[in-house]
Amino acid sequence: VQLQASGGGLVQAGGSLRLSCTASTSLISIDVMSWYRQAPGKERDLVAAISRASTTNYLDSVKGRFTISRDNAKNTVYLQMDSLKPEDTAVYYCSAFRWTNTFWGQGTQVTVSS
What we know:
By secondary structure, the protein is mainly β. Helices cover 0% and strands 56% of the residues. It is built from no helices and eleven strands. It is globular, with a radius of gyration of 13 Å. The chain starts with a strand and ends with a strand.
């Protein structure tokens, strides 16, 4: 599975961005699609995930601000990020989990200025 992420950028605190991740295969074949992020010097953290059944879960610090969604017709998963904070600054990675395999897309930088 190949994943193409896009949508990162520079935004002021309180602003919004929408990340997109397009898979090379049908999302129906993928168990879970997720967004992770990694800030400099820190571990990669799970930000949001959505299952094939569209069950979602979120990192506590983004609940109520971020929304993960999927468009099966476009093989694309989105991460809508609102009320962004400087601490959201990181490289965001899309991943796909299928059977026992995890696939990663390239990262997209999100920078939130104060």
